[in-house]
Write a structure and sequence with these properties.
Elements (H helix, E strand, L loop, with lengths): L12 H20 L2 H8 L1 E3 L2 E4 L2 E4 L6 E6 L3 H12 L5 E7 L10 E5 L6 H15 L6 E6 L16 H13 L4 H9 L8 H4 L5 E7 L22 H10 L8 H11 L17 E7 L1 H14 L3 E9 L3 H18 L7 E7 L13 H12 L6 E7 L11 E5 L2 H7 L4 H6 L3 H8 L2 E2 L10 E7 L1
Parallel strand pairs: 4-5, 4-7, 5-6, 7-8, 8-9, 10-11
Antiparallel strand pairs: 1-2, 2-3, 11-15, 12-13, 12-15, 13-14
Helix pairs in contact: 1-10, 2-3, 6-8, 8-9, 11-12, 12-15
């Protein structure tokens, strides 16, 4: 079970007890979406029959079983599949984030860059494509997809370079683009997304196990939908770049590809009704919903009046923080919608538009903005957590704030407002000792936020 670092236990007495309760709720949420357990729940073998989501696969009917995939949860997923299928696996290639590997036996793991794709990811994508090209209609291909799969499955189309993709990804992230927008563009610039991975399997049976990291669990957006039909178009990708004023700054080859595609001069991604998907089954095996429900169960057991408010939390982190702070004030001042002790649980994923040159992530920025809004409010605690253990380009998963967070910061000479303006939430919470540190959790189902009032 993933543990949150003891940095948060430095406060003794009642404060320490309350922090311990909140951290235990979050740890339970992480345990509920353990990728290996999720695979074992979804994929069951009885002799030569493999069961998954109402589908049955007679292993004796397949000449080979290949396993491919990409994502931060790829290592434990691969290990679980090896435990289930053992020597029945002919070959496999799965790409994971650097530092997220594990000792597998029959499935080769490659480590690559995330969130910005790198050369290792391109090389790993070539190996995955090579394995798929060996498949025939007499084979079974198991695909393991989890959060981060888009960045870990880079296969630039035509003369688009990796550098072109890296620059565009950086620009989109810095502009605060949503993951659905980023993935719409990726699907039209890369060769293994938008259903194209399934097409490489040469008519083999394809079973895709998905750990969702996208709000609402849209299969076509998780890891840019490598095994599902894509309803988006080149024109949609162009519109997104124009929306963020990024089209003119994109590499000329990217502008050319998108323009030619929108004009009908290039083949589109695979659409609903394509025969490729007649032998493809996609199964979501874990998601933010599951983590949030587990958090709610543990919160109730800890004595909180509990409400799972939403798993569709989206928007600019500092603006979402104002909403969470308003909810906390409502709990404190009016006892609505729950009597104290109360715990509101929210799941989803916010974005950050970079304005300064500081260091932080969306969960830390949300927490800092909430701390400013809740300055001086007693009896309130807010915790934010990236379930993959990495919030932005930091080693923190999130942060924890209370009504006296800003007072403690001022005593240290920290200017919370200035640090928020500089996107410098990491150093703010590091100085206070209020970062949440988990290390790589090897799972990824979006973010969680707890609003607790005593």
């Amino acid at each position: 079970m993933t543990r949150i670092a003891p940095q948060l236990w430095q406060h003794a007495g009642l404060r320490g007890q309350r922090r311990e309760a909140v951290v235990r709720i979050l740890e339970a949420a992480l345990a509920a979406v353990d990728p290996a357990e999720a695979v074992r729940r979804a994929l069951r073998r009885e002799g030569n029959t493999l069961h998954c989501g109402g589908q049955r696969y007679q292993l004796a009917d397949f000449a080979h079983v290949y396993v491919v995939g990409a994502g931060k949860a790829g290592a434990p997923m691969a290990l679980a599949v090896e435990q289930i299928l053992g020597e029945r696996i002919s070959a496999g290639n799965v790409t994971v984030k650097r530092g997220y590997g594990a000792p597998t036996q029959r499935i080769q793991l490659a480590e690559a860059g995330h969130p910005i794709p790198d050369e290792a990811g391109v090389a790993a994508a070539r190996e995955i494509a090579s394995t798929l090209e060996r498949a025939t209609a007499n084979d079974l291909v198991i695909v393991l997809i989890s959060g981060g799969g888009s960045a870990l499955l880079p296969a630039p189309l035509g003369s688009i370079s990796l550098g072109d993709l890296q620059a565009l990804t950086n620009a989109l992230l810095g502009a605060g683009a949503a993951i659905t927008e980023i993935n719409t563009i990726r699907k039209h610039l890369e060769g293994l997304k938008g259903g194209r991975l399934a097409a490489l399997a040469n008519g083999a049976q394809v079973l895709c196990l998905v750990l969702s990291d996208v709000v609402g669990n849209p299969l076509d957006m998780i890891a840019s939908g490598p095994t599902v039909p894509d309803p988006s178009t080149y024109a949609d990708a162009l519109a997104i770049l124009r929306r963020y004023n990024l089209l003119e700054g994109a590499a000329p080859v990217i502008r050319q590809v998108l323009a030619r595609g929108a004009a009908g001069a290039l083949p589109e991604t695979l659409k609903p009704g394509d025969q490729v998907f007649a032998r493809v089954h996609n199964q979501i095996i874990a998601s933010n919903d599951l983590a949030a429900e587990a958090a709610a169960q543990v919160a109730r057991g800890a004595g909180f009046n509990t409400l799972l408010l939403t798993t569709y939390l989206e928007g600019e982190a500092r603006e979402v923080a104002k909403v969470l702070a308003a909810l906390a004030k409502e709990l404190v001042c009016r006892g609505q919608p729950l009597a104290r002790p109360a715990c509101l649980i929210l799941g989803g994923e916010t974005t950050v538009t970079l304005r300064g040159k500081g260091k932080g992530g969306r969960n830390q920025e949300l927490a800092l903005a909430a701390a400013l809004a809740l300055d001086g409010i007693e009896g309130v605690m807010l915790a934010t957590l990236a379930t993959d253990g990495g919030d932005g380009p930091t080693d923190a998963a999130g942060a924890l704030i209370e009504g006296d967070t800003m007072a403690r910061a001022r005593a240290l000479g920290l200017d919370g407002r200035a640090m928020l303006d500089e996107n410098d939430s990491y150093y703010f919470f590091a100085a206070l000792g209020d970062l949440m540190i988990t290390g790589p959790t090897n799972t990824n189902v979006n973010d969680l936020a707890l609003v607790c009032v005593w």
